[in-house]
Amino acid sequence: MARALTYPQATHLLRRAAARGRKQEAQQLVEMGLEAAVDHLLRDPAPAPIYTTAATRNERGQQHREISQLWLNHWLTTPTPAAERMVLFWHGHLTSEFRETMGAQGIDFWNQFATFRQLGYGPYGELLKAIARNPVMLLYLNNAQSRKEHPNQNWARELLELYTIGPGHYTEQDILEAARAFTGWTVRLPGNQRPREASANVAYEFFFNRNWHDTGEKTFLGKRIRSGEEVLEILIAHPKTYEFVGRKLLKFYLCPDPPEPLVQEGARVFRSSGTKEFLRWLFTHEAFYNPEYRNALIKSPLEYLVGLWYAAGVSRVDFEERPGRGLYQALAAMGQIPFDPPNVAGWDGGLAWLAESPFLTRLNVLAGFAGRERGLDLEVFMDNAGGALALVKPEAQLL
To answer: What global pTM score does this model have?
Structure first.
């Protein structure tokens, strides 16, 4: 027998799964019932538009505005918005910084987001293998320059500390051995084009340079290995990977400090069935609808703006026009620039989003909705929405 979904539960589900929604959509979920509503939200992601640019490879600022605009417009219009909030999660977990990844173009970052979208709902191991070969990641963490004579440890260190088993489950020697295993994992342009001569629409591709690779035996987490592929397989098989990443998923979708029994239960689902089944498990779990977890998260600036724009019926923003350029600058002032987290650990989130200056920027953004008050459908955007003036209440900042 299908489980019922109340209207307040439906608005909570829409906010958490997709960070956008309107009254009619919440009502449709109620009519579907819990399981069907969750399946509806977790449909396979709709593909994003193709990105092309007239900018040169040196005009990266223009490219960044273009891909930021393209992604946010896709999030505002896609029939599968839950997939875009998932993309935001993977972007904050498997981080790369646009401003720090010299050489990488807008197309390279756009392709990385496509990988998050295409593989993000599946087994974590498949996504991890793809990101290990992703040109943006290889350039960002300097593995593209890693040779047997001087193995670069950046990728190996973050792989262990931030992307898989977490601190306390490996040694400095394990990092060094993993770094040796990934030597020669680099990038190139198709046809060995030179960057200075190539179009900004030409993306980097993964290339394994055998001459740079350390072929010697290594010992990683107590096992004898030779290749980067073997490092990945060991980490993909490790139960701590799913506990560590599963906890981050719960912090993103449930609450800042998830209870340990849920972490352990979720880790088992995540390990055996992948991310989509993890989210299905969470969104159909009675704990997800517990009043203590409602409004337990603070909207990130991107979630705030997407939710607010969608509630106002905005389907397109243009960062090249004067009003839109102000919104692009507002994202920076609020502390969250798409494709450009502050560091390899991603965004701190939580109360940091509501520090004085970022919070004042949020309130200033509201002035742009003057004259649209009647068109605002805030039923999903916030609890206790009683018209446009409610946007200054604390609930407007909560997810």
So the answer is: 0.97
Long-range contacts of 118-123 (CB under 8 A, 24+ apart): 118/45, 120/45, 120/83, 120/86, 120/87, 120/89, 120/90, 120/275, 121/42, 121/44, 121/45, 121/83, 121/86, 121/274, 121/275, 121/276, 121/279, 122/274, 122/275, 122/276, 123/274, 123/275
300-337: pLDDT as tens digits: 999 999 999 999 999 999 888 776 678 888 999 999 99
For 91-128, write each residue's pLDDT tens digit: 999 999 999 998 999 999 999 999 999 999 999 999 99
Mean pLDDT of 266-282: 98
What 3-state DSSP class applies to 188? strand
Q: Long-range contacts for 77-80 (Cβ within 8 Å, ≥24 apart)?
A: 77/315, 77/316, 78/45, 78/46, 78/48, 79/43, 79/46, 80/43, 80/44, 80/45, 80/46
Query: In the chain, what are the domain boundaries?
Result: 60-237, 301-397
Strands 205-208 and 185-188, how do they pair? antiparallel
Q: Which of 259, 250, 256, 260 has the alpha carbon at shortest distance from 282?
A: 250
Spatial CA neighbour of 123 closest among 37, 242, 16: 242
CA distances, 188 to each of 110, 153, 208, 285 (Å): 17, 21, 10, 46
**Pair 113, 45: CB distance under 8 Å:** no
